[in-house]
Amino acid sequence: MERYQGAVAEGRFRRLWNANAPGYLFLLPWLIGFFGLTLGPALISLYLSFTDFDMLQSPRWVGIANYVRIATADPKFSAAMHVTLTYVVFSVPFKLTFALLVAMALNRGLRGLTFYRAIFYLPSLLGGSVAIAVLWRQLFASDGLVNAALAQIGIEGPSWISHPNYSIYTLVALSVWQFGSPMIIFLAGLRQIPQDMYEAASLDGASKFRQFYKITLPLLTPVIFFNAVVQTIEAFKAFTPAFIISGGTGGPINSTLFYTLYLYQEAFGNFRMGYASALAWILVVIIAIFTAFSFLTSRYWVHYDD
Question: Domains of the chain (ranges plus CATH)?
Fold first, then answer.
């Protein structure tokens, strides 16, 4: 009886394997990447966050000491959080607003729409590169193109990237310039809004602003919600512009010390890999809290078809 049950189970397994083997083989590269390059390193970093590890000696377990130090005895942590939150608060709304305005302009039936769409999307492809960050540093230098343009109208501009009051806003401007990705998504959302709704509103005497406020925005809220969540997460993870423009220091006076840049300094500058891992997991928690809060509050302002 047991031999018969075993043969039946083996036959069932073989049939399932023969039916699903191609799918598992196609998934194998992704599974290797997920467990070997994502989940595995993440779990290792979680362990390292409870250790003192300098990459030269074996990790030494210290419990929650790294987290206690971050919360109570690390002024650069609070400085990095302040800079990062400032960047997020200014860059994300301005980028989404500019992207929506451009998308609405392109949605008016311009000739050569494909060309304009490609041109406006190009900064999103190039904006995160080292070359663009170097170019941005040259543009906003004391003798850069921005100050040269201001001098033509009689304004003496400051050294934007070396002044602590202005340096963070040069990075905000670089982020807003990379509006192409949310613009494409906004444009797709605008194309899904039925035109007969605007025609009916026009017949009722609604102005363009009222049509935008009463029709476009409510029907576009799912797209706005998606773009807001994605762009905020990307803003929290921003690294390359601050690293290149500040020379990896986060200066002047920590005014461009992004959280990710501080994490990099601790890991590869001070060789405190355990402490850097704790910083990384705090960032994960912050992003998770923001995302959860966004989904919880979306029921009050995001309108779906139902």
Answer: 74-299 (1.10.3720.10)
